[in-house]
Design goal:
Number of strands of chain A: 21
Largest interface: A-B, 50 and 41 residues
Radius of gyration of chain A: 29 Å
Number of strands of chain B: 11
Shape of chain B: globular
Strand content of chain B: 15-25%
Strand order of the largest sheet of chain A: 8-7-9-10-6-13
Number of helices of chain B: 6
Helix content of chain A: 40-55%
Largest sheet of chain A: 6 strands, parallel
Radius of gyration of chain B: 18 Å
Structural class of chain B: alpha+beta
Order of helices and strands of chain B: HEEEHEEEEEEHHEEHH
Distance between the termini of chain B: 25 Å
Shape of chain A: globular
Oligomer: heterodimer
Distance between the termini of chain A: 73 Å
Largest sheet of chain B: 9 strands, antiparallel
Chain lengths: 660, 216
């Protein structure tokens, strides 16, 4: 940015258009604030002395001082067009240790605001899970180069941030929101997402980042944190919009009447038809993969000027479509037919229009790969349910397909290099508990009792804090029943537990002193070092296969450390075989590349309906067969038909896991 | 009945109504049955009241099905033999659509015109605060108005209070678990425990509402 200066005095600088500023005062404030931030941590207290550097790179020192004779640099080091300050003046008395350097960097990035780097960050062998978790928690939070760009750049137009589970998308968007709000306090900013449990988390993250530079909380009148839809208890993007335009929002039943598959899509469509006035200067969208396309069109209309819409998505976290639509298609087209979001090229800076986060920090590599292997269904009973078709898509997500040819029927081997999953748990933990435990039980009661016993062992022997344990039921419909039962069993072990979100989806997880018992949906957006997933046998459900795999992926990828997966036999025996097949090949996925057309059909919502019809038909046919006289069957079936029926029944037993 | 009997009642509730309650949070503290950091809430209710109570863990038990909360407080004398005060509250969550019940709506919070905001009742027993016929020592508040105090003749035990709440607010559950063809399924001992502690029932057909609430 260039400014034309009219006057430079000791108190203020005056620009030609009448603005007052004094960069030297601003520098003083910044240096003082930074000094305080460094001094808050005793490991680098009094080790670093921030220095003031003022850069006026478009003018020479001689010309500037000649024009503004009253200029006094008050001790700031200067960068002129012709002179760069003497770096020797900014040298440290003695070198920083690696730990001190990382810490200083973390403080500069403001990343320290999410961690609690209070004790040593040096890795040492941990005999118990609790000790390993403490090391994980105390690691110094540092942003990698990709994350830094995602968090700090404020591009003058849409920006897309792609990243897998655990790449820090929510945190980075929160940092970005806090940074925009710091720079442009009077602008209207929207931060939106799909999962309600994110509400408190996002507000708390933004507050923490904002308060690194400010003594007060963010001004929530200008920075709106909103669920996309909204409801009676809490405003959302859609309900706010209707309110501003004096319209009644569509009720849930109305919306569902219009669009049974995605009621929210009907809301967006109705808002777009009625007209949307621009309101927000900046829009940040988390979990973009969960929204219907026309929500982005609505956001385009809602945003002012350059349409600064920054959206983060994880294409492997939504099984509702094959791959996220090309970002350029998201916002629709201009009247002249050109794309509204021109993905090609860069913004000035340069700032990238599409950023890819390849490193996943949350999950250990084996956990993340199990989540993906199961989510994609690479060894599923009917083959994969979802697949990335292009090698570039795999690479963007931190996988390496090597020389594999991604064509139907070809055997492929896709690796996840260790550097893309830098979680330290497997390095530091030396105890007996495996990161992945896969179990099957004869009855649900036995499964729940085994989970209660294992949780008790984690807490009492392995030193895990109760709030670090989350139990998730893969079966949503019966989840409450299982959780209530498990709560009693944990109580018998004197372990307190909580089922959050019975009245409010935004209820917080990880309440100190309590084990969390949750449904998959409520676990979304949260994480914990120890995850238990029960009723996992549902994975092989015929009708709801895609939905179950989606839930399995979300559940497993919540873990920062250990995962326990269990279910009830006989179906769990089959599921176990699939899980073990995925695990045996790690860190590779080895499978036969599927037919993408077949996958597309399976992902089509009509496939679920077709399967429901098949189930009803099977029930009807069996009933008819049972009710038919034996003599009638004997008279109408020939030997070949009987053989085929016998073969079919044998296969049915095989699928049910009832044969060896 | 004494404090220890009431404590046993509380412990037995989860077994008695297995699968109905969640998140037990009641404690015995000195001569009271209460919950940690109990706050006496203002009777003026807001739509956010229930959420606030849950967020602050201001309850003895939650109802698993909808998250409604029960607040059960009894204060006894120093011997634990004489009831000195009680406050028994129930905050109903209403009938919001459960987005999880239908996978198609997973992830959205529906705006529903007929969303029931819920409501609450609270039975207070506090002889020291009694003033006149408008403020009887034992009375029932409802969320209709903080000034409504329906005089109540007896203070229910924990079992009785829970029985009332389920009968009033979850009649289907009550029918399914307690009644056969409209008559009580309880064994004689149970019925004795449940209904006869404070008031015997003459005609053998206990009427839940008639037992505890006496309008003069």
């Amino acid at each position: 940015m260039s400014l034309c200066l009219k006057e430079v005095g000791p108190e203020h600088w005056l620009t030609q258009d009448g603005h007052e500023l004094n960069p030297l005062f601003e520098l003083d404030d910044m240096v003082e604030a930074l000094k305080q931030r460094f001094n808050r941590d005793r490991r680098i207290r009094d080790r670093l002395e921030p220095i003031k550097v003022l850069s006026l790179p478009l003018i020479s020192e001689h010309a500037f001082r000649g024009t503004f004779a009253g200029f006094n640099d008050t001790g700031a080091l200067m960068i002129w067009q012709d002179v760069i300050f003497d770096a020797a003046k900014a040298k440290l008395g003695s070198d920083l240790t690696d730990e001190q350097f990382s810490l200083a960097l973390s403080i500069l990035q403001t990343a320290h605001a999410i961690g609690q780097p209070t004790s040593t960050s040096i890795r040492s062998p941990a005999a118990t899970m609790g000790a390993a978790i403490r090391q994980l928690d105390n690691a110094i939070m540092l942003l990698d180069a990709e994350q830094q760009k995602a968090a700090l750049n404020i591009p003058p137009g849409p920006q897309c941030i792609r990243g897998l589970a655990g790449t820090g998308k929510t945190v980075l968007l929160a940092m970005k929101a806090a940074s925009i709000h710091s720079h442009y306090g009077d602008r209207k900013i929207l931060f939106t997402f799909n999962t309600q449990s994110l509400y408190n988390q996002v507000r708390s993250l933004i507050t923490r980042f904002y308060r690194v530079h400010h003594v007060e909380d963010p001004n929530w009148d200008n920075l709106h944190v909103r669920h996309a839809w909204g409801g009676a208890r809490r405003p959302g993007v859609y309900s706010d919009l209707c309110k501003r335009h004096g319209r009644d929002p569509m009720t849930f039943s109305d919306a569902r009447g219009h669009d049974r598959e995605q009621p929210f899509r009907a809301c967006c469509a109705s808002a777009l038809t009625a007209g949307v006035q621009p309101y927000y200067d900046f829009v940040l969208v988390d979990e973009a993969q969960d929204f219907p396309m026309n929500f982005f069109e609505l956001l385009w209309m809602l945003s002012t000027g350059d349409h600064c819409i920054y959206f983060a998505y994880d294409e492997l976290q939504s099984l509702s479509s094959l791959e996220m639509p090309n970002p350029k298609d998201l916002f629709g087209r201009n009247p002249d037919g050109t794309d509204r979001f021109q993905v090609e090229g860069e913004y000035p800076g340069p700032i990238e229009k599409v950023l890819t986060l390849t490193k996943s920090y949350r999950c250990p590599r084996c956990v993340l790969m199990l989540a993906h292997g199961i989510g994609l269904g690479i060894h599923g009973p009917r083959g994969p349910v979802q697949m990335l078709e292009r090698a570039s898509s795999w690479r963007a997500l931190g996988y390496d397909p090597g020389e594999s040819v991604l064509e139907t029927g070809r055997e492929v081997a896709i690796e996840r290099p260790a550097e893309n999953s830098p979680n330290i748990i497997s390095e530091v933990y030396e105890g007996d508990r495996h990161l992945l435990a896969i179990q099957s039980f004869p009855t649900r009661e036995e499964e729940l009792q085994a989970v209660a016993d294992s949780v008790a062992n984690d807490i009492n022997t392995e030193g895990v804090a109760p709030q670090n344990v989350v139990v998730i039921s893969l079966d949503s419909l019966n989840a409450k029943k299982y959780m209530s039962d498990l709560q009693m069993r944990l109580y018998a072990h004197s372990i307190a537990s909580t089922i959050p979100g019975l009245v409010d989806d935004s209820a917080e997880f990880a309440e100190i002193g309590f084990v969390t018992l949750s449904t998959v949906y409520r676990a979304k957006g949260n994480e914990a070092p120890v995850i238990y997933i029960i009723a996992f046998e549902g994975l092989w459900d015929y009708v709801g296969e895609v939905s179950y795999r989606n839930r399995a992926f979300t559940s497993i990828s919540r873990s920062k450390g250990w995962v326990w997966i269990s279910g009830v036999r006989p179906q769990m025996t089959q599921v176990q075989t699939e899980l073990k097949k995925v695990v045996a090949d790690l860190p590779y996925f080895r499978f036969t590349f599927p037919d993408m057309a077949l996958i597309q059909r399976r992902l089509d919502p009509s496939e679920t309906t077709r399967r429901k019809v098949q189930v009803s038909q099977a029930k009807r046919s069996v009933r008819d067969l049972e009710e038919t006289d034996l003599d009638a069957l004997a008279a109408s079936l020939d030997t070949e038909q009987l053989d085929r029926l016998e073969e079919k029944l044998r296969k049915v037993r095989e699928v049910r896991g009832e044969t060896e | 009945m004494k404090l220890n009997d009431f404590v046993s009642h509380m412990i037995s509730l989860e077994q008695r109504w297995a699968g109905f309650f969640a998140n037990p949070n009641y404690i015995r503290s000195d001569n009271t049955i209460t919950w940690p950091n109990r706050i006496r809430f203002d009777v003026d209710t807001t739509a956010e009241l229930l959420v606030t109570l849950v967020e602050q863990r201001q309850y003895s038990l939650q109802v698993l099905e909808d998250g409604s909360v029960l607040q059960i407080y009894y204060g006894f004398d120093h011997n634990g033999s004489r009831l000195q005060e009680a406050s028994l509250g129930f905050f109903h969550a209403g009938h919001a659509i459960d987005s999880e019940a239908d996978p198609l709506t997973e992830g959205v919070l529906p705006i529903s015109a007929d969303e029931n905001p819920g409501g609450w009742i609270r039975l207070d027993y506090d002889p020291t605060a009694a003033r006149d016929c408008l403020h009887y020592h034992s009375h029932l508040h409802t969320s209709l108005s903080g000034d409504i105090r329906i005089p109540v003749k007896r203070v229910p035990t924990p079992k009785q209070f829970v029985e009332l709440i389920i009968a009033w607010f979850y009649p289907e559950t009550y029918r399914a678990r307690r009644l056969t063809n409209g008559a009580f399924q309880l064994s004689n001992d149970d019925a004795q425990n449940l209904f006869n502690d404070l008031l015997s029932v003459g005609d053998g057909i206990p009427s839940l509402n008639g037992i505890h609430v006496y309008v003069p």
